[in-house]
Specification:
single chain; mainly alpha; Arc Repressor Mutant, subunit A; three-stranded antiparallel β-sheet; 8 strands; disordered C terminus; WH_DNA-bd_sf; HTH arsR-type domain-containing protein; transmembrane; membrane
């Protein structure tokens, strides 16, 4: 919205806002002084009214008295002419005497200034929260290459709509890249950070089962499918299914020993796995420095 954009712009111009507010306040005080003490207006009311007058009577300077119409203070002829039906019509603000309008002007100016200041505060606070959420999403993506939008949302405590909004902003800024790998759209920091093979490895590491299997193979090169099943407490058929994906993507290799198929990490995959593997799953002999 244009008004919000204006407030957002003015939020970064605090000195201008304060100067404008000061000028408006001074103008309001000058107008109030002239309206009360310089410009002529109707006679002032004497307060309190002298005793002996009916309740509700108003006495103006100069002796002019206004009393409520009642049988107690009017003759029968006057009562016959009195109009007790209420106001003849509503009077708009612009029909009031000038001094009354000017008397109300300072309050109006102060109200406008207060509303503008509140708008600037709301925009600045909203922008601060928005930037914090975007930075949090970027940090999570940096620490978790190959994550998905729902993972960002869970990891940062955001709803999925907010997470997708900040992911889109980061993508528009060229800070991240989205890539469809398998069934999921994976998120990485800008495209110069990871090559296609590293992105593929990172996507496998986002799966708990794949990560556990790869960690076990790194710790125990040459492990068999049966031993993986026993070590990880997974069904042998499930281990086989994950191993088939890892073999197809060239992340692991296998050798036959009799009837057993033994698994190893592919030579070209060792370094990316060491770099991308969560620390808790690294092989003790291959820890990061």
């Amino acid at each position: 919205m244009p008004f919000l954009k204006y407030l957002d712009y003015m939020a970064g111009k605090r000195g201008i806002v304060l100067a404008a507010a000061g000028i408006l306040l001074v103008a309001a005080l000058v107008l109030a002084y002239y309206s009360l003490f310089v410009w002529p207006h109707d006679a002032r009311v004497v307060d309190p009214a002298p005793s002996g007058l009916p309740p509700g009577s108003i006495v103006y300077e100069g002796g002019y008295v206004v009393m409520p119409a009642s049988e107690a203070n009017l003759t029968p002829e006057q009562m016959a002419q009195a109009d007790t039906g209420g106001a003849d019509r509503a009077v708009s603000f612009w029909e009031l005497p000038l001094w009354i309008q000017l008397y109300a002007l300072p309050g109006l100016i102060v109200g406008v200034i207060a509303a503008a200041a509140a708008g600037v505060f709301v925009v600045r606070r909203s922008r601060k929260i928005d930037n914090a959420n975007k930075l949090g999403a970027y940090t999570y993506i940096t620490d978790n290459p190959g994550c998905t939008a729902p993972e960002v949302a869970r990891g940062r405590g955001l709803n999925i709509g907010t997470a997708r909004y900040h992911i889109q902003r980061l993508q528009n800024e060229g800070r991240i890249v989205l890539q469809k790998i398998g069934k999921y759209t994976r998120i990485f920091v800008n495209s110069h950070t990871y090559n296609d093979r590293e992105k593929l490895i990172a996507s496998h590491l986002r799966s708990d089962s794949s990560r556990k299997i790869l960690g076990a193979i790194m710790d125990t090169p040459g492990i068999s499918n049966q031993k993986l099943s026993d070590m990880l407490g997974m069904e042998k058929s499930l281990v086989f299914r994950y191993m088939q994906k890892l073999l197809d993507d060239g992340i692991v290799t296998c050798e036959w020993e009799g009837k057993n198929k033994l698994y190893y990490i592919s030579q070209g995959a060792k370094e990316p796995l060491i770099r991308l593997m969560p620390r808790n799953y690294q092989c003790p002999g291959l820890m990061k420095e």
